[in-house]
């Protein structure tokens, strides 16, 4: 049957310094997917990133963690999608979302970058915003001037647990996402966060 998606990108910053920061929620997601479904990341210099392959439904899904730093994420992604001839509609991007509280996660297609530097570069490099996103809530500091230190800061233990629980919910639903059951998944994620 194959899969709805051929590429799943997690956005984040490389190096140990950023590993536990809120801005790396996209990395946390693809790491959990790889661990849960048995894929192993390996460095691929052609794409300036870490790439893993996951077999699903008779097809292959690639996981990508750009190692270019957040504001140049699009360079890594664009190189890979051009090489494998993947369209924007076949791509799913996981990223941190200031507009949602920790514990909230949403699935969405298209839209702007909302000030997110990784998404901004992705849209610039691909020439389209027509890809699906997994938006992982990290909360907002309440003041625009505090956004940069906030996203590059580590969440507290309770906050981190809520974010990780949200990621685990999407991980459980990942086979349904790959099968293209997107409206059912969207409804389920919305319902879960209302509880």
From TrEMBL:
Q: Which family does it belong to?
A: Belongs to the PTH family.
Q: Which Gene3D superfamilies match?
A: Peptidyl-tRNA hydrolase
Q: Where in the cell is it found?
A: Cytoplasm
Annotated catalytic residues: 23
Q: By what name is this protein known?
A: Peptidyl-tRNA hydrolase
**Where is tRNA annotated to bind?**
18, 69, 71, 117
Show which residues form the site (Stabilizes the basic form of H active site to accept a proton): 96
* Record NCBIfam families: pth
Q: What is its EC number?
A: 3.1.1.29
Q: Name one Pfam family in it.
A: Pept_tRNA_hydro
Q: Which reaction does it catalyse?
A: an N-acyl-L-alpha-aminoacyl-tRNA + H2O = an N-acyl-L-amino acid + a tRNA + H(+)
